[in-house]
Amino acid sequence: MSRLTISMPDQMNEWVESQIAAGRYGNVSEYFRDLVRRDQERREAAVAELRTMLERAEASGVSDRTFPDILEAARREARQKGLLRDEN
Q1: Residues 17-46 as b or e (16 or more Cβ within 10 Å = b)
Q2: NCBIfam families of this UniProt entry (predicted)?
Q3: Exposure of 67 by Cβ count < 10 A (0-12 exposed, 13-18 middle, 19+ buried)?
Q4: Handedness of CA 83, 40, 38, 52 (dihedral sign)
Q5: Distances (CA, A) of 84 to 28, 69, 79
Q6: What single DSSP character describes residue 83?
Q7: Helix (H) or strand (E) run with residue 21 in it
Q8: Rounded to an integer, what distance in angstroms lies between the CA atom of residue 69 and that of residue 72?
Q9: How far apart are CA 86 and CA 84, in angstroms?
């Protein structure tokens, strides 16, 4: 097993220590292993979701819409969701 030394602000260290004191983790190493494990799982899930989206896109075939049509539809949808202002 590898050994790792990290530095963090006091406030973060206090948070980690409070998690241990609350019984959520047995020690600092357990806390950080859990963080790394969760990050790995989150990234793997994101990659799986992207793969699924790509597979669906490929299976849907080639669109007969032009690029400007697709771009305008995307802008309309973004405006409706409040992700894009009207001037864009």
Answers
A1: eeeeeeeebeeeeebeeeeeeeeeeeeeee
A2: antidote_CC2985
A3: exposed
A4: positive
A5: 43, 17, 5
A6: S
A7: helix 10-21
A8: 5
A9: 7
pLDDT digits (tens, 9 = 90+) for 21-38: 999 999 999 999 999 999
Q: No. of H helices and E strands in the chain?
A: 3, 0
Q: Where are the domains of the chain?
A: 10-80
Report whether 84 contacts 78 (CB < 8 A): yes
Length of the chain: 88
Read off the pLDDT of residues 29-87 as tens digits, 9 standing for 90 and up: 999 999 999 999 999 999 999 999 999 999 999 989 999 999 999 999 999 999 988 76
Cα–chain center distance at 51: 15
Amino acid at 60: S
